[in-house]
Amino acid sequence: MLTSILRCGIHGLFEGGEWSLPISHQDFVKGLDGQFDMYLTPYKPVPQNWFIPLDGTKVLGLASGGGQQCPVFAAQQADVTVFDYSNQQLELEKMVVEREGSAIEIIKGDMSKRLPFEDESFDMIFHPVSNGYVEDVEHVWKECHRILKKGGGLLAGFTNPALYLFGEGENRLTIVNKLPFKGHTDQSEEELVQTGGIQLSHSLETQIGGQLKAGFQLQELYEDHHHKVD
Q: What are the Methyltransferase type domain coordinates in residue numbering (predicted)?
């Protein structure tokens, strides 16, 4: 049986976090020198010792468009593929690639379907918080396990389902929803495009237990906040 390394960051309980700001040229240059912070969740950087040596490593940025993480991997001489469903995020990725003259394979696709990669294609998968837009999150974990090489690593961020109990703005400390949560289906088409689709809560059983069921071994875990705490 394939055994891959699983490392997760749990997305916390508050609102915030900006996933559509591409890295600056200055940050890219720092990445060339091995100086970088990477984020699976809004505010707490991924521990540096979670990363395998990146030079020559095949890395998949799963739902990781936006020109934030994958250009840093490319700066470390990794062989990088980014896979995302959002045209806007992929355009930002393309902009950074062209600005820096880096090499990243950019693929648009739906991670709720079978991923368009052969078995054991990647050494590492970097998967920031995003599977709240997928109905069957266990499918995502199974596909990650399938396309990782033996001994490969999945670094994944996901949302604490308790987040979805609460409202937004003035109501962010008030329980307004029940679990499991399935978005607000009364959103207009424009609102759905802006938010990326209807969000879904996933239990820790399907998030963590689903990863273990797929064949991963949990090595490390940390918690973060969804809203900056003073």
A: 61-155
Looking up tokens 């969804």 gives 226
What separation, in Å, do the N-terminal and C-terminal C-alpha atoms of the chain show? 46
CA distance linking residue 28 with residue 37, whole number of Å:
11
Among 133-137, 150-154, 212-216, the least confident range: 133-137
Q: What is the CATH number of the domain that holds 56?
A: 3.40.50.150
194 within domain boundaries: yes
Task: At 204, list the tokens.
Answer: 């820790």
Helix (H, G, I), strand (E, B) or coil at 217: strand
Q: In which domain, by residue range, is 188 found?
A: 4-219
What amino acid occupies position 140?
V
Whether residue 225 lies inside any domain: the answer is: no
Do the Cβ atoms of 20 and 92 come closer than 8 Å?
yes
